Automatic annotation (TrEMBL):
Domain of life: Bacteria
Signal peptide as annotated in the record: none
A Pfam family per the record: MFS_1
UniProt entry tagged with the keyword Ribonucleoprotein: no
InterPro entries for this protein: MFS (IPR011701), MFS_DHA3_Transporter (IPR053160), MFS_trans_sf (IPR036259)
Name the UniProt record assigns to this protein: MFS transporter
The keyword Transmembrane helix is annotated on this UniProt entry: yes
Transmembrane residue ranges: 64-90, 102-125, 219-238, 245-263, 326-344
């Protein structure tokens, strides 16, 4: 960092961010369930804007630390809020069958937005760090204001019964996530698949090791999120795919990763992009199964538990990479794929 923060300092900042997110993840889900998922989504976007503002105004170690804490809190507020907001609104309108398609398009937008954002940052960076920082603030504020315009299901329609307190929602959400057999399987599936996405951190390393010149790595990897976005966007059409079919697609993704690693050339990126896209499609459909299984008022809390538990397989990816690189990560994905038929089995009339 230009502020003089070295590698050790950067690691401490990232650890602070991660710790904040872990501690706030599930309570933030309960806050969204108790008050407003739309409000939590907007607060998360505005919180990210506040973090950018802190980093821009105080580009020193203490400023970065404060910004990472705010960023962690913002991420916890946003986590799962959009998914549960959309599902309850569709449930209110009797259109839950449209959720898979909607989630697929949202995921596609998230994946596809990384490219224009990176391009804009590249254009702005020559004008100085502050310009990029304030542009990030403006984008976050705009996202927060747009979030406030989203419709939200009326509490009395989407959820029956008296208004529970924050503590009760937190307890009931955690209890539903961990003890309800209809929810636990899809939740573990989503957590495991989400954790595998830590592989994305190593894509530039793979591209370089396969002979792609360093200056061309960003361009060479552009197709990975684009193909993943296309597959995620189409995943809604496969809402009725069976659990064994999803496991088969995940296993095919494993084979694609192994083949890419074995080839070890720039052309391997085609196999890598295809495998990653297939994996993202499976993840979208697993997330749909989780929302379909959850039935209580604490839907965002349940989703937040899945996000929290995804940290465990993410660390598994880091360890697997350290042991044997891409092949070990592919093996880890294979284990998850083989477990999907059991995890996604519909139980108890869900």
């Amino acid at each position: 960092m230009g502020s003089g923060t070295g590698a050790a300092g950067l690691s401490l900042l990232l650890a602070l961010w991660s710790l904040t997110g872990v501690l706030a993840e599930v309570p933030a889900g309960a806050v969204a369930d108790r008050w407003s998922r739309r409000g939590a989504l907007a607060a998360g976007a505005l919180g990210r804007g506040a973090a950018f503002a802190v980093w821009t105004l105080a580009p020193v170690p203490t400023g970065f630390a404060a910004g990472f804490v705010v960023w962690g809190l913002a991420g916890a507020l946003s986590s799962g809020s959009l998914e549960t907001l959309a599902y309850d609104l569709l449930r209110e309108r009797g259109r839950t069958d449209a959720y898979a398609g909607l989630l697929g398009r949202v995921t596609a937008a998230r994946l596809g937005a990384a490219l224009p954002a990176a391009g804009l940052a590249t254009l702005l960076l020559p004008h100085g760090y502050a310009v990029v920082g304030w542009a990030s603030v403006a984008t976050s504020v705009a996202a927060g204001l747009l979030a406030l315009r989203l419709p939200e299901a009326a509490r009395g329609v989407a959820d029956e019964g008296e208004e529970p307190g924050l503590g009760e929602l937190l307890r009931s959400g955690v209890r539903e996530a961990l003890l309800d057999v209809r929810v636990r399987g899809p939740l573990v599936a989503v957590a495991a698949l989400t954790g595998i996405d830590a592989l994305e951190e190593y894509l530039p390393v793979l591209a370089s090791s396969w002979g792609v010149p360093t200056s061309l790595v960003p361009l060479a990897l552009a197709g990975v999120p684009l193909l993943a976005a296309a597959v995620a966007g189409a995943a809604g059409r496969l809402r009725g795919a069976g659990r064994r079919a999803l496991a088969g697609v995940a296993l095919a993704a494993c084979c694609g990763l192994l083949a890419a690693g074995a080839l070890g050339r720039p052309a391997s990126l085609v196999l890598l992009a295809t495998a990653y896209a297939a994996y993202r499609g499976v993840l979208v459909l697993a997330e749909v199964r989780l929302q379909e299984a959850a039935s209580g008022r604490a839907r965002t809390t349940v989703t937040s538990v899945a996000a929290l538990l995804s940290e465990l397989p993410a660390f598994g990816v880091y360890a697997a990479w350290a042991v044997h690189g891409l092949a070990a990560v592919a093996a880890l994905l294979a284990v998850v794929a083989l477990a999907l038929p059991a995890l996604l089995r519909r139980r108890g009339g869900s």
